[in-house]
Design goal:
The complex is a heterotetramer, with two copies of chain A and two copies of chain B. By secondary structure, chain A is α/β, with parallel strands linked by helices. Chain A contains 15 helices and eight strands. In chain A, strands 1, 2, 3, 4, 5, 6, 7 and 8 form an eight-stranded mixed beta sheet that branches. In chain A, α10 (196-200) links the parallel β5 and β6. Helices cover 33% and strands 15% of the residues of chain B. By secondary structure, chain B is of the alpha/beta class. Chain B has ten helices and eight strands. Chain B folds into two domains: 13-56, no CATH class; 57-280, Alpha-Beta Complex (2-enoyl-CoA Hydratase, Chain A, domain 1). In chain B, α4 runs parallel beside α6 (179-192). The chains are: A alpha/beta, B alpha/beta. Chains in contact: A-B, A-C, A-D, B-D, C-D. The A-C interface holds A 76, 78-88, 96-98, 101-103, 129, 133, 140, 143-147, 289 and C 191, 194, 196, 218-219, 255-262, 272, 275-276, 278-285. Bound molecules: zinc ion (ZN) (2 copies). One zinc ion binds at residues 30, 32-33, 35, 49, 51-52, 54 of chain C. One zinc ion binds at residues 30, 32-33, 35, 49, 51-52, 54 of chain B.
Chain lengths: 311, 285, 285, 311
């Protein structure tokens, strides 16, 4: 595909998207113009720099984390702790809250703000226990018919000895399986780093959204560079090659919509970022709530089973 | 059973935790005890070292010839090939790596699927091959595994999956990650149809494959000494500086920690699988 | 809130792991910091030590008066009493122990159930009382708890259970063990009707009660310092000779190991419960 | 109740039972006479000695354990290991096998035969991990419609620090809950010691059987004596008071039938004990297999919810 073709393709997708019920709120909130601006930016987006800018913003130390959003977008909130087996994993928080009058169950990765909290929360890298906790609250959502919302923000699942011994791979697989079984509406949003298995473990949703400057990828740019370029310093090159930014994820059919951020990025205005995120989540739930549970599950599985490009 | 067209394992750079490539050594030299074997000797012994029991990698077609009753295997989806949606280029273009892998292995992708019978039990097979780009899972592998699930449902027969993979194929970027939920959803569709899946984890079963369909078997057996880890030992050590236990990530450790049902050396596998298929055939529903 | 008729806790011999009976000390002496309180002071402070935060045991009727909106509580199954199916006699007859417990506590059994509202949210309450034979669960406790589940289903309102128990009541032999599956089945019936159960674990929540309905809450909160253990520290130490961690079996350890959602001191409980009831009221089904 | 009343009562129960489909096999195999003999023995059973004899036989070091029966009553057997989270608990074995042409899933406590195995298997006292493993195979049974059989033989759940930290109470509760949800036929048999929560965790079955000399109790005789008599040496007295023997459990409505043992007890003739156990299990499954799954579950819950005696 030439750059020109690529642009045409994306313009078509974006204009199509703006007609979807999902983006009704976006239109109402004047996000259509934002998408236009995104499109403009895309023309320059073939540069390594533009993609790298997303990588940097996605990891920005002032970027809002899950609990920053929870405090702003939910009216009531009770955090639920523990996997009922071994631990309470601070890298993945779960709870029950009220979103615009609707009770929802929420799970999200949580990075730490200061040094101590970062260590306590393992930089948002969950152990298997974190995914077990997420599965527990998914079952709670299913039992009482509460929509399930996940906020994804992790460099990846924790790469440690105990995490392996406790079954990191199996936990990630089973968390996805659990999500694929739910009959309640599910919405995931990548709000920062959507890193590999640790991210997708809680992102098998009816609607998968990404914030404008979030990234979603199979490996960190540094990890990819270390393996393919044999030099972790080539991270920019790797990112440019595997294209973890929201527009490319949308283009590849991996996500269902992009959530706008404040002009300078979510880190610059938490309140505004939260307002935009809340509107997108509410729109997605509005769209999903009329669909019967079995049909939701059928469509969700069909969507993920359709992902990939092969000859 | 025909000897494999090419027993050298192309580890490439795709799999970071596989044993180091044999280098100058003859590929039929046992890395554990140093014994040497002729190709036909090794093939006759199911690629198991007669001296120390080390399990050499086994090619997908060899395993199928061994598991499947003679003449019973009918391959499916043989024409599914990887595409290059990102026009990915690292030190070499992805398209070139793909062509080379096909040339070297005689396979269209890192998994072979099809219908067969094992000891007269009809079964759907999905067998991975590490020699094709480290058994990495891209869109084509995900699609073929999913089709194996659908074929098992259609036939009403169990799915037998053999895994050997370095993980997701990063040359397909985010689409390779999406093969995790894709294959998971395929297994869930299988389970909704009350069709069992038996998984045999061969060396290595790691990262994206372990974190998706490989972990969802109704019964899971592992080959001795197989590395079974989401994150391999090298990355764990580099990232956390933790001291690793001697058997870190090996099948034996996974068994001790409750992640696999049994470690079954190759000589006993066929009988073990046959017994399982017989049992799954005896349900009341 | 009326002060309790009798604040002395009759630990008897039923509960092996509760703190040693106060002995000569005044019952209103804080076992943690030694502060003394008048009955009315302690009642006004929800039986929490103003100096150190120690949570004294709270009688079932006091807790109901506190949780329930004024005048909203209607007791159910008040007439259910224990029987003595084994004509059990240890150092004293079971029947005598029962009469004495009723006399000392003013309760018919170790649990009180009924309908109420909390902050205007209708709710079914099932509140245990440790002063009645150590909160032990015999047939009557099992039956009353099960009826609370049924009443919650019938009304379509959440069940709020407060646990405090030394375990099964061994004077009823195997029938006391059967209260475990009995109450578990009652909770499963509740869940099939999509009615939530919130559990508040008070000191001590142990043995048969922990191993049945107490562990099946949709949300579980614990009181600070409560012993929450299947096997209490003394028996663990006697049996295994293991060195026990300082906070062995306490609510705080249970929280760290992922077994309770939150530790909520009494002053915040009512608001916490009210918020949960409000949230459970907001489902879409 | 006088002894006379007790006898009449039991005779009525036993004769009633012998007409049940459950005991069809018993009649065919000449077990009716055995039950008569049991009844005769009951007249002497008010003595401490007779109950204590059951306690001793139930714990006899030569008594067949779960795997001894598995080897004799199942044609095919594949043991399934591990809880998929933390461990493979040797005190509770699980697997899939073939019973008289039917595929069944089986779970049972396993004591050790020699010193090393006893330590490895913790004397049949399972950790929470053991119950998690049991729940995993229950789900397997449910998924494929295989009947679930449990063999109970434990002094109780393991009373250790790690067992508590890993949630022993919750695991026992959830294992019971899982059994109460199954829609496949379930049969439990107490084959030795049915000790407290650790036993009932896998005994919430449609048909609960007990071998003639097994015991089923809320606490060990020694534990009860230590607490109520303040002297563990009074174990005989305690056992006589809480009556853990099969006949009394039948009388109290806690079990559905008694499985005969060889004349001298199961320890004297493993092959014959296995033959009798197999016949009882097959009979129970024959009886249950016509009943629809939802109805099985409804009846199972109704049975357990009806247990207890109160005024
Ligand atoms: Zn060798
Ligand atoms: Zn104090």
């Amino acid at each position: 595909m030439t750059e020109r073709d690529q642009e045409v393709n994306l313009r078509r997708r974006l204009s199509g998207l703006s007609r979807l019920p999902l983006l009704r709120g976006a239109r109402l909130n004047g996000e259509a113009e934002r998408l236009e601006r995104q499109l403009e930016r895309l023309k320059a987006d073939t540069s390594d720099e533009a993609i790298w800018h997303s990588v940097e913003l996605a990891r920005h130390q002032d970027r809002p984390y899950t609990l920053d959003y929870v405090g702003r977008i939910l009216d009531d909130w009770v955090e639920l702790h523990g996997d009922r087996g071994r631990a309470d994993d601070g890298a993945l928080v779960t709870g029950i809250g009220s979103l615009d009058g609707r009770t929802v169950v929420l799970a999200g990765h949580q990075k730490g703000r200061d040094v101590k909290e970062r260590l306590d929360r393992q930089f948002g890298m969950a152990y298997p226990e974190g995914y077990h906790k997420a599965m527990r609250v998914m079952e709670l959502a299913e039992r009482f018919g509460f929509p399930f919302i996940s906020l994804v923000d992790t460099p990846g699942a924790y790469p440690g000895v105990a995490a392996e011994q406790h079954g990191q791979g199996g936990a990630i697989a089973r968390s996805q399986a659990e999500m694929s079984r739910l009959t309640v509406p599910t919405v995931a949003c990548i709000i920062g780093e959507g890193g590999s298995g640790g991210a997708v473990a809680i992102a098998v949703a009816d609607r998968v959204l990404m914030q404008e400057n979030a990234i979603y990828s199979v490996i960190t740019p540094e990890g990819c560079a270390a393996i393919l370029w044999r030099d972790a310093g080539e991270a920019k090159k790797a990112a440019a090659a595997f294209k973890p930014d929201a527009l490319h994820c949308l283009d590849l059919g991996v996500i269902d919509g992009i959530v706008a951020e404040p002009e300078q990025g979510a880190q610059a205005d938490h309140a505004e970022a939260a307002r935009l995120l809340k509107a997108a989540l509410v729109d997605a739930l509005d769209y999903l709530e009329g669909i019967p549970g079995e049909e939701l599950r059928r469509r969700r599985r069909a969507k993920f089973r359709g992902m990939g490009v092969y000859a | 059973m025909t000897p494999p067209p090419e027993t050298r394992i192309d580890v490439q750079v795709e799999h970071k935790d596989a044993p180091a490539p044999a280098g100058k050594k003859h590929p039929n030299t046992c890395p554990k005890c140093g014994s040497h074997y002729r190709d036909d000797e090794l093939a006759a012994a199911l690629w198991v070292c007669g001296q120390c029991g080390h399990h050499f990698p086994m090619r997908a077609r060899d395993r199928i010839s061994w598991y499947a009753d003679a003449g019973s295997f009918t391959e499916e989806a043989a024409d599914v090939r990887s595409d290059d949606p990102l026009a990915f280029f690292d030190l070499r273009p992805y398209a070139e790596r793909l062509s080379e892998a096909e040339l070297n292995t005689g396979l269209g992708e890192a998994i072979v699927i099809g219908q067969a019978s094992l000891d007269a039990h009809p079964v759907e097979l999905a067998v991975m091959d590490f020699s094709f780009m480290g058994g990495s899972m891209g869109s084509a592998v995900g699609e073929k595994f999913s089709r194996a699930c659908d074929s098992a449902i259609e036939q009403g027969v169990p799915l037998l999956a053999v895994t050997s993979s370095g993980g997701a194929r990063m040359q397909e970027g985010i689409l390779s990650l999406m093969q995790l939920p894709k294959t998971v959803c395929a297994v869930e569709d299988l389970h909704d149809a009350r069709i069992p899946m038996i998984v045999v984890m061969a060396h290595p079963t790691t990262a994206g494959v372990l974190a998706s369909f490989a972990s969802l078997g109704d019964v899971t057996i592992a080959e001795p000494g197989a590395l079974i880890a989401f994150t391999g030992p090298r990355v764990v050590q580099q990232t956390t500086r933790e001291k690793l236990p001697d058997d870190f990530g090996l099948a034996e450790q996974n068994f001790r920690f409750g992640h696999v049902d049994e470690i079954v050396p190759r000589p006993g596998q066929r009988e073990h699988l046959s017994r399982l298929l017989r049992l799954f055939d005896g349900g009341q529903r």
